[in-house]
């Protein structure tokens, strides 16, 4: 029997429900989830990689991180042609191909790389693997990847991911990621990535995979990359994270010749994952081990922090997209920072032979400058438990200078290659160096556990439903 108007009016309905317990459980509109980020930096001394170079150890693939940040310095020789005339993109394409191969190699194939235990690198610089797939990575079309300017779906990574449009955006991204157009229709190397150019760099929307040969097998996609002369930075992420990445921007600052050219300086990539902002900075600072050269490096860092300004792309107010490096929630700074050990070669050699890292690190310029508060304020670095990473004789485990009589050519061993971080909610899980003899530097790798703020979707759906019920008077 239909109730009378008076009965319906006096009925408590949803307003009569005791929602106090529900409201209490919904107090937190966000939740915190931990993601793993693998970071690696390597000064490769101007050498282009061969197709057999194994990067699995360099990238710490065994840890299965959610995001990989790969920074290189001197991917091309720092000569006048590369600095002043035209940028050589072919080595960058080769590094991208090798990174993609290492990250997306099927698990059962991960042990197929040859290993040379005497080098301690587990195959990082091996030349024994002659797999045809590896060599096909470097045939001529693959070297044109970086100049390929397709624009398919690039905007998915450029738009903001503020809360107001989050659900609509996520649904759109998920539909496009599952669209058949993303599946391989050929084995062309030129279709690996579809980049679009911005004022500051190249941002990428994952499209057709390069390795392995099917979309369903592919785990990681290139999110963004940028080259500035010899500095090269790329960020990769798991496929399932892509719908939650936004505010993607790239910036570069030259600090080389005349304080402006790109033989020295930095590349920065800014992005947000869910509701947390990240900034990855890859730098190559001023070289030199003369007295007061560390002040030049301090000046480089100060100018980078001052000059790096990310473009405004968010239309929402207030916007979570920060414009400066230091305003990000989580910052990771990597690269050849070039800080030296403030000891003579002879004193350093004695401590090296004793593996007395702690005493050496007391004279490390970066440590001393940070303790004095003159550089990297608020940044942290994990404890160093490995030998200095620079400078080695080519293709050997001997430091340059051990067999050199001229003091001008001799270099005091130092920890030039470093990884630092800033921000709450980030913890370093490991900090190691690789043992590849490919360059006169040893690569350095770190793994971080980063907390990310996420929307509580269950609460949001309930609140929306409750709001609708109230509006229609249920």
Description:
With about 475 residues, the chain is of the alpha+beta class. It has a single domain, classed as Deoxyribonuclease I, Chain A, CATH 3.60.10.10. About 25% of the residues lie in helices and about 25% in strands. The protein contains twelve helices and 13 strands. The strands form two sheets. The chain has an eight-stranded mixed beta sheet with strand order 3-4-5-6-2-1-13-12, covered by helices on one side. A five-stranded mixed beta sheet has the order 7-8-9-10-11, with helices on one face. A hairpin with a 2-residue loop joins strand 8 and strand 9. The protein is globular and about 95 Å long. About 15% of the residues have low confidence.
Present the secondary structure layout:
Blueprint: H1 5-10, H2 20-25, E1 30-43, H3 56-59, E2 67-73, H4 80-85, H5 90-104, H6 132-136, H7 166-177, E3 194-197, E4 202-205, E5 220-228, E6 231-238, E7 245-254, E8 265-273, E9 276-284, H8 293-307, E10 330-336, H9 345-353, H10 357-362, H11 365-371, E11 417-422, E12 426-433, E13 444-455, H12 457-472
Parallel strand pairs: 1-2, 9-10
Antiparallel strand pairs: 1-13, 2-6, 3-4, 4-5, 5-6, 7-8, 8-9, 10-11, 12-13
């Amino acid at each position: 029997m239909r109730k009378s108007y008076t009965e319906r009016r006096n009925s408590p309905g949803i307003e009569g429900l005791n929602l106090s317990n529900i409201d209490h459980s919904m107090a937190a509109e966000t939740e915190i989830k931990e993601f793993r980020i693998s970071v690696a930096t390597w000064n490769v001394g101007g050498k282009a990689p061969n197709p057999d170079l194994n990067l699995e150890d360099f990238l710490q693939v065994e840890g299965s991180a959610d995001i990989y940040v790969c920074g290189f310095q001197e991917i091309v020789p720092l000569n006048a042609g590369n600095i002043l005339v035209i940028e050589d993109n072919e080595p960058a394409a080769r590094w991208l191909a090798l990174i993609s191969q290492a990250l997306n190699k099927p698990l059962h194939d991960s042990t197929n790389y040859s290993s040379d235990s005497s080098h301690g690198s587990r195959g990082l610089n091996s030349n024994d693997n002659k797999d045809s797939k590896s060599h096909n990575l470097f045939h001529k079309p693959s070297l044109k990847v970086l100049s390929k300017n397709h624009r398919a779906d690039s905007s998915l990574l450029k738009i903001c991911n503020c809360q107001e449009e989050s659900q609509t955006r996520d649904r759109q991204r998920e539909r496009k990621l599952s669209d058949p157009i993303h599946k391989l229709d050929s084995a062309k190397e030129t279709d690996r990535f579809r980049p679009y150019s911005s004022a500051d760099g190249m941002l990428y929307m994952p499209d057709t995979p390069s390795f392995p040969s099917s979309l369903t097998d592919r785990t990681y996609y290139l999110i963004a990359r940028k080259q500035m002369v010899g500095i090269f930075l790329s960020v990769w992420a798991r496929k399932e994270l892509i719908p939650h990445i936004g505010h993607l921007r790239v910036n570069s600052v030259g600090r080389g010749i005349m304080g402006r050219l790109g033989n020295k300086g930095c590349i920065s990539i800014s992005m947000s994952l869910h509701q947390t902002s990240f900034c990855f900075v890859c730098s190559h600072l001023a070289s030199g081990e003369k007295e007061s050269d560390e002040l030049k490096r301090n000046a480089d860092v100060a100018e980078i922090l001052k000059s790096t300004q990310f473009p405004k792309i968010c239309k929402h107010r207030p916007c979570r997209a920060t414009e400066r490096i230091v305003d990000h929630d989580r910052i990771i700074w990597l690269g050849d920072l070039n800080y030296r050990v403030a000891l003579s070669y002879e004193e350093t050699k004695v401590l090296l032979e004793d593996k007395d890292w702690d005493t050496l690190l007391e004279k490390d310029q970066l440590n001393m400058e940070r303790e004095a508060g003159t550089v990297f304020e608020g940044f942290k670095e994990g404890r160093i438990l490995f030998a200095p990473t620079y400078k080695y004789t080519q293709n050997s485990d001997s430091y340059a200078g051990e067999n050199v009589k001229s003091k001008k050519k001799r270099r005091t061993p130092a920890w030039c290659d470093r990884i630092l971080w800033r921000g709450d909610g980030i913890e370093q899980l490991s900090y190691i160096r690789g043992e590849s003899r490919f360059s006169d530097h040893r690569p350095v790798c770190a793994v971080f556990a980063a907390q990310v703020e996420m929307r509580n979707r269950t609460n949001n759906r309930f609140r929306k439903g409750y709001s609708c019920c109230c509006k229609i008077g249920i």
